[in-house]
Each structure stands twice: as C-alpha cells, then as structure tokens.
Amino acid sequence: MKNIFLLLLLVLSLLAGLGTWSVVTRLNEQVTTRFEGRRWELPARIFGRPLELYVGRELLADDLQQELDLLQYVSTPSVAKPGEFRRAGNSFTVHSRDFPFPEGLQEAAIVNIKIIDNRISSLSDGQSLRQLDIFRMEPLLIASIYPGDNEDRLFVRLDDVPYLFAETLLLTEDRKFYQHAGIRPLAILRALLANIKAGRTVQGGSTLTQQLVKNFFLSSEQSIGRKLNEAVMALLLEYHYSKEDILESYLNEIYLGQDGKRAIHGFGLASRFYFERNIDELSPDQIALLVGMAKGASFYNPRRHPERARSRRNIILGKMGKAGLLSKGEVQGLQRRSLGIREGVPSGITPYPAFVQLVRRQLKRDYRDEDLQSEGLSIFTTFDPVFQKRAEDGLQKVLADIELQRNLPKGKLQGVFVLCSADQGEVLAVVAGRNPRQAGFNRALDMRRPVGSIIKPAVYLTALGQPEKYNLLSTLYDEPLRIPVQGGSAWQPENYDREFYGPVSLLTALADSYNVATVQLGMELGVDAVVKTLQSLGVDDEIAPYPSLLLGAVELPPLTVLQMYQTIAAGGYRTQLRTILAVTDMQNTLLQRYPLLVEQAVKPGPLFCLSRGLMEVCQSGTGRNLVNLLPLSLSVAGKTGTTDQLRDSWFAGFSGSHVAVAWVGRDDNRTTNLTGATGAMLVWAAVMSQIRTTALELQAPDSIEFYYSDVAAGNLYADYCEPGELLPYVRGGVLPVVVRCGSRGLQSERLRTREDRYEKVPQSTMQKLFRIFQ
Amino acid sequence: MKQMVIFFFLAFCLAVIQGCSVPGYRSATPYRQKYETPLKTFHSGAEGGWAARRPGGAVVTKIQEQAWQLMEMGEFAAASQRIERGLRIAPKDEFLWSQLAQVRLEQQDYEQARYLAAKSSDLAGRNVSLISKNREIILEADRLSSQQ
C-alpha cells in the first residue's frame, strides 16, 4: 500500500514536473520570440526640410524665431541644454539637438547667429567661436504614421537617458533592480500583508521586470494564474537578457497617457507630449513628474488632474532628495515650481494634412502600409513650414478681404495654393482650403476644375516650337471665327470683353489673353499638337482633343497645373514634382534616396520665348496689376485664368526660384464674380511677396538671339530704335520684316489693317470697363 | 607669300600639338583637373572675387569642393546629395548642374548626364568653357550608352 502511494506520488510529481516544464517552455518561447524579434511597432515619422544657415543667407530674425518656436526651442538666458536658445535683438545663440540625418548623425552644438539687414552676417561655433560655413537645424516633425493599435512611441536608447532620470525611476519603482533576479518574494509578501491589513491595494510588490512582463505579455487581469505566469516570465526575462536591455524596454513600453485615439508610450514620447522637450532636456522636477506617472498615467495625468500630479511629483522630489540625488535646497525650490506642462502640444493629428496626403501617395509607390506603420522609418521631405504658414495666412486673408469688399457671403469662397521650387520641383507648401488643418477632400490634389486661360501657354509654346513659322511677332487674327462641330451648331469663340482686336502679335495675344486669336492659332497648329505639348509639360491626365481645350475647357487639379508650370519655369527641364528626399530605417540606415531627376521635355529656345511672353502678361497684360502687388524688384512671369460664368479664378506663375498656382472658387461651383486677376492672382501675389524668393531673370540659351522689335507694327529694326524693345528669337527661325527706324507705319501691313478695320470701331463704356478689369 | 605659308604651317603645327595635349575624358587625371572649368576657378575665403559674388556665396563653393572630394573618393551618391544641397541654395548655379551631370555620368545614368549637362549649358550664358565641358559630357554619355 505504501509502495503504491509512493508510486502514485512519483507519477503525480512527474506529471506535475512535465506540466510545469511544458508551461515554462511555452512561456520561455513567448518571451524570447517577442524579445528577439521586433519589440514594438514603431510609427513612421515624416519630417520637413531642415533650415540651412550660412553667411549671406537672406533670413529675417523673426523667421528664425518662428522656426525655433516650431521646433519647440525654449528661450532661456543660459542656453545650457539642447533645445534652448537666447535672442538679443537680431543675434541668436542656439543649442541645437542631436539629429540623425540620412547622411549621418549631426550632434548637438551651440551656434551663434547674427543677422544684419535681413541676412546672416555671422555664423560661428558657440564654444570655439570658429566661423562655420554652413549649419542646419533639425527638421520639423510634421506627421507620424501610426500602427493599427494606435500606439505611439519615440524610441530612446538607454545611453540617451540622463543618469538622473534612470536613477529616479529605479529609486521609485524598483530600488533593488540590479540585485534581484526578476522577482522579490519578500517584497511580494510584504505588500500582501500590507494590502490585507489595509483592506485595499496600498503597496505593490512587483519589480520593474514584472511590470514590464505585465505590460508586454499579459492582460491586466488580477488572478493567481496570471501572477504566477508573470513571475515565471520575469525570471525567464532576467535569465536571457541583461538588466540594461530590460530597463531600456521598460522605458519605451510604459503607457503614459492618451491623445485621442493615440496612446502615448514610453518616456521618450511622453517628455515631448507633456513638455515639448527631448528626454535629455528635462529638468529634475519634470523628471520627477514623468517618473511619478508610472504609477498610474490616467490617475496622475497632469493636464486633467494637476493637483494630484503635483503632489505625486513632490513626493518623488522628496525621495530624490533623501537619496542624495538633489540637495535639500534644490528639492524645496523644485517643489514650489509649477508643473510646466506645455499647453497646445501638437496633437498626433498632423497640422498639415494636405501635404502629408501627397507624401503618403508617393510613399505608396515604394512601401507597404504595414512597413510604414511598424518599422520606425524616418521620411525626409521637402516641406517648408515657414512657406506653408505664409501660404495659409495669405490665402485666408485675401479670401476674407475679397468677401468683405465685394459683399460676398462670408466663408463661401474657397481656395488652393501650391508651391514648389522652380528647378528641382520640390513641393514646399500645399494649402488645400481655408481651413488647412482640416483633413478630408484635398482640393490641391483631387479637385478637378476647368483651367481656363492658364492652359494657353501650351498653345503658344506649340507655335513657338515651330520657329520656321512662328515667333513672338507673328501676326494672329483676332477676328470672328466659326468652328464647325460635328452633329451640332458651330462654335464661335469670343473674347472676355466680347470685342475683336484684329491682327495682333502673338506676344500681345498671349499677354492680353485674347481667346479668338488663341483658338485661331490653335486650330492652325492642330489640337492634337497642343495636347502633345501639354503632355510634354507634364500633364499626364487623359485629354480629349476638342477645340474648346484651347481655351482651357479641360479639368485639371491644381497640382497638375503646378507640374505644367514647373516645366516652363525650369527652362523646359521637367522634374516630376516630389515631396520625399530620403527614407531611413530605425538604425538610421539609408533605405532609399529620391535623387533629382530632370528630363528635357521642351526645347529651351521656344521655351525662353514663351517665358518672355509670360513676363509680358505680368507687366502689361492681364496680370499687370502684379506690378502694384509685388515688391518692385520682384519680376515674375505667369498667366491668369478665368472660366465660364466666372466660376473659377486661377493664377499660375513663377519667380526666379519658385513656382506657384492659386485657385479661388466655390465648392458648390457657383459663380464667384472673380476673374483670374481679381481673385487667384491676389492670393498668389500676397503669398509670393511674403516668402523669400528671387526675381526672375531669364537666362537666354545658346539658341536665342535678340532683335529690336516693334510689337504693335510687327517689324524688326536693324539697330536700336525708340519704339523698339529687345525680344528673343530662335536662331535660324523665321524673322519679321526688318525696317529702318522711322519708317514704322509705312511698311506695317498689320498697323494699316488695324487702323482701317478695328481702331475706328467705337467701344462702349461697358466694354472699356471690362477691358480695364480684365 | 612664302612667309605667310610658313606662318600658317607653324600655326597649324601648334594647333595640332595643342589638340594632342588635351587629356582624354577618361584619362587618369584627377577629377578636379579633368572636369573643373579653367575659366572660373572658385576659391573659398574672404579674398572676395567670384566666390563672393556667386549666388549663394562662399558656401556654394565650399559645397562644390566637398562634392569634388567625394567624387575623388568614388562616393558618387554622397556627392550627388551634396550637390543637390547646393542647388537648394543656388538653384541656377550652372557649375553645380554640370557637376551633377558628371556624377550621373559616373553612376552610368547617361540619360540624366545628358539632360543635366544640357541644362547647365542653358544656364551658362557666355561661359564657353563650361558649355564646351558640358558638350564633352554629352558626347561621352552618348558614346558610353551606345556601347551598352
């Protein structure tokens, strides 16, 4: 009997041993699999452009201040830590932060910047005072792409965590962290007795390792089974991994708050979320507050329960004092401080949804959604937050002004403004509406509206691309025109003011946006040829080759128009508009670079002549009011566009370094009573006059030669002559008749015809007014 | 008449000698000598001159220098990145565009080399030396791409 009992005990022990072994093996696998693999799904982070600082750079002191504010730098007299700066008039001392650029880590540095006459006059290292050639600030984080579980975290390495932070954490959460093996049975027993005595939970006995296990692998269920699993897993974790590894994981795993759907995990993100500082920039009281929150992030939430959070912080400060981490005086001083929580911390929702949407579309070509949500990628983009701000402000102000001046219903007008660099096609700002923070329908990318006359440059470029037939002085006939339409009545295009101007130069027809002359020219060239030109300029959309296309009866999104004008602004060298420059992984290894690629889409000679024509638009044509709206020195080129019944108002144009497109209209597609010049052009000018851009100075390519030309008469002069102006012609192309200075009218058939047939026709007052306002 | 013939003969001989002395495009000459245009050589520093007048000032010159060094080390991707950084400061700088064309040529992206060299020439105005250098790049790109 005794033997049977012993045998049974043995079998039972064996079974229990086997069962335990199997559980331990399963838990072991769970622990190692998670720890060996990727521990967290880390969101991708999208950054804007870094601000480059160098001597000679045009920069307003207030612009630099704005950049520092956006980057959440703190103004202090001492400038002791990264993320701090001091301003004295137009001189700045900035302590930059470490930043992993795609080319490598740029370490934090103190930089002195002096601005005189709106230019950087001196740039030096704050410590050695050595002059610096160039320095760049870290770029602004503009958006994150979160994992499906909406956990957001900013991974920090243990080495990057200040000593005081780690010590305070261990002091508060697990004093014996470096001595135990994962669990502390005596502490558990002590806590158990204290809790039984109090009748509620007043003390915790979990080690930091157990807390990590609970957060990482287990639910918050309170049961003996879960507690046992927690203990076993804590032991296993300690067996397999170093203390440093476990501590680093804890620092990054812990839950520390909520921002809408976004869960704030880890001290790295929490320090930015509550203080807008990096973890290595925190003061002792800020450290105490965050460490105190580990006990219960919701309960001690400093935004919702400031008193509770303050009292908890002061307890931690007291502990720090007792442990000798702070002096008694320091503790007393710090305990009196306010919480210092920054209000209005950028939410997880991007403030720039329109631009980010464009980035995500371009990312989708190369990356899966899962990778973007989990691999901790850094995406470096072309976004310029200062330009974006100017564009948002400009659009909002001009639309409000127009509504006020014209007694239009408030808030009915909508607008778009898109901006890119001229030669590189880097998209710098995207404003998709009056409320730029609102995500949703992206007018800049997805709105398709008839483009009106801003399409005309394609017609004129098609002509100028045949220099053996056309030049800027070629005569076009702005006369009544009937174009038969298959199965319908003939189309009779009209000018905006319903007048006809007779024989005019190609340059004048472009500058004054004559519809009939343009249609006449387009029909001569063939609509298919114009479609081809549009495609060369970067319009990928399918376009039906109807004659009405010549006047812009084609619906395009503003971004496509921007692409078209980028090709023109870049002298015919098209660059696919781009937002992404590089992508790096969590280890800062370069995954992909998006290099500058250009394509010679149009011959430079004809393009140069067209650009000269577009400058004329802004000097004496439909865009002549720009002379009053822009700084005197800022010469630009561009084209107005107005659609039927004044529904859409467009302006597309470029300076020496930037291309921009503005649209104004209504979402319900009703009339705005605005032409291109009285609506979108005002927005365009308001923004362009506020950004740092350069005047347009056309550089003639080798294939261009200049002659003194009489635009009205359509003649060339052999040499300088009073009514003549220097105009470009493609070398080897057809040239107008050359006349002697003084014999202008005698030899100009165009002038004679105009005098005989058109200039004697009286204009009604209304027609004259129309012309003025156009 | 006889003196004229001798003069033209000597001039012809000198021209031939001069022509033969131009190094081949893919000779062992270092990049700087092989590519850098002799008409406008940039020097950083405070002595004024072209570097100071150049759009973007001395910093563009410095960036260009760094890019040359990277090219000499065979670090073409890094050189390209550096030049693009320079172009953000001075987008119409014909020398940077030409240098980028050279980088693309080395990266065997012949189409880009041609476009970039052509763009540089369009921006070069009357800088015949740079235009001629760009023409060389285009010819070389044509030759190499035809061998592929």
Mean pLDDT of chain A: 89
- CATH architecture descriptor text of the domain at 379-451 and 554-699 in chain A: 3-Layer(aba) Sandwich
Secondary-structure content class of chain A:
alpha+beta
- Main CATH class of the domain at 379-451 and 554-699 in chain A: Alpha Beta
CATH architecture of the domain at 58-148 in chain B: Alpha Horseshoe
Principal-axis shape of chain B = globular
Task: Give the SSE map.
The complex is a heterodimer of chains A (774) and B (148).
Chain A: H1 2-36, E1 44-47, E2 52-54, H2 61-70, E3 74-75, E4 84-88, E5 91-95, E6 99-101, E7 104-106, E8 110-116, E9 119-125, E10 134-136, E11 141-145, E12 151-153, H3 163-173, H4 185-198, H5 208-217, H6 224-240, H7 243-253, E13 255-259, E14 262-265, H8 266-275, H9 284-293, H10 306-322, H11 328-336, H12 353-364, H13 369-374, E15 378-381, H14 385-405, E16 413-421, E17 427-431, H15 443-446, E18 449-450, H16 456-464, E19 475-478, E20 502-505, H17 506-511, H18 515-525, H19 527-536, E21 555-556, H20 558-569, E22 573-574, E23 580-584, E24 590-593, E25 599-600, H21 604-619, H22 626-629, E26 637-642, E27 649-654, E28 658-666, H23 680-688, E29 704-710, E30 715-717, E31 725-730, E32 738-739, H24 744-747, H25 749-757, H26 765-773
Helix pairs in contact in A: 1-6, 3-9, 5-6, 5-7, 9-10, 10-11, 14-23, 16-18, 16-19, 16-21, 18-19
Chain B: H1 2-21, H2 31-35, H3 49-53, H4 57-72, H5 76-89, H6 94-106, H7 110-123, H8 128-147
Helix pairs in contact in B: 4-5, 5-6, 6-7, 6-8, 7-8
